[in-house]
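Researcher: Let's continue the batch. This sequence belongs to Halo transducer protein, and it's 320 residues. Same format as the previous ones, please.
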Amino acid sequence: MSEPAPAATPLEELVDAVSERTDEEPESIRTWLDPFTEDGTVTPAAVESSVTDVSQVLATAETRVDLATRTHEEATAAADGAPDLDVVDVRRRAFGDRLDDLRAEVEALGDEFGEARSELDSPVAVYRAAVALHEVTTDAQDVVRVAHDLETELEAFEAWISSANRRHDGLVDDVEAAEESAESVAEVVTALREADEPDPERRFDAAVQTRVLDLVVGDLRAEAADLRAWADRDGVSFPDDVDARIDALEAEVADHAAALAGGPDWDDRFGERLAALDAELDAVEPPVAWARVDESVAAARSALSDDDATVDETATPGRQ
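Model: Same format as before. Here are the structure tokens for Halo transducer protein:
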């Protein structure tokens, strides 16, 4: 560590000094300073060791992002040979955005690490450095995990690009997942119909899920059209029953929506949330940016929670 390390100081003396200057509890301060402590004393050697450990974790994060970058380059090169279709472009752009976010995160963590290791000229600064280094470690470990997941998904994307069977199997899997979600909503709709006093929160959540399923149907239909065009270009077969299944799914979702709309009038608490959600979802077109949809749905549910309504936390049936 090139920056001056703090002089060896008894832990309890440092805890008392920090406690006097901050609102932190002594026990919390003591816990944060533990990585800097040897035999009851905060020592330069322990600080040096902790900084080195964090540096290694950060270096691992940088390496994982570098590996993801190389995998992204390979997958992008493979995608260059694919036809100019939304089904390809939306995936490629999403991967690029996620990689950009990881690069920015690693750069920011490097800056935070540099600041933490250089500010050790007072008891409070040492304490804050300990907290900051812990946070850098935690965030860097998250980057390692996310970068590894991204690399795996990029490898799968490259395989998807190169194999019509993988593309078609993936579409069929998504259709099946949507059908299962629609069946779950059907069970809720049936239960609401049979109830003497239907639970409004449960009805609201089913209405939200039905709206999302309607987007899923449109997204699946658009993807099926693109994959069929790709199959025609390459002279390979396309699953015969996909269109019929999507049509049946669309009809089922419409039935659920009608059944939910045909119930009692929504009170203002629910009606306003659904109207706001409808306004946002009406502007969404395939290929659907599911992260944005998830945010809109979460906001609608959160608004109800703020109103002290207990909303069913069933997962929204969107797509990845």
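Researcher: Any comment?
Model: The CA atoms of residues 95 and 101 lie 10 Å apart.
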